[in-house]
Amino acid sequence: MLPVSSSNIDSIGYNEDNQEVYVRFLNNSLYVYKGVPKHEFENLRDAPSLGSYLHRNFKNVYPYERVE
Question: To bridge 33 with a disulfide, which of 4, 39, 51, 64 should be the other Cys (CB 3.0-4.6 Å)?
């Protein structure tokens, strides 16, 4: 997991084998987004606002679930 500077997100991670993005929020909840190509994770990682990017490009695009 990579620590990030965000008002809502603590850290993000990527499992290339499974194409899964992990997002840990500041409230300590952990979500996994499935079927995400590596370039999309890299776009999230490099976005000026991770929360906005996540909302626009992940929320209604990739299936996700809370794991913690």
Answer: 64
Cβ neighbours of 44 (radius 10 Å) = 21
**What confidence score (pLDDT) does residue 12 get?**
98
CA 5 to chain centre: 13
32 neighbors 22 (Cβ within 8 angstroms)? yes
Beta bridge partners of 22: 13, 32
- Closest residue by Cα to residue 53 from 1, 6, 3: 6
**Per-residue pLDDT tens over the stretch 33-62:** 999 999 999 999 999 999 999 999 999 999
Rounded-to-integer distance, Cα 17 and Cα 3, Å: 21
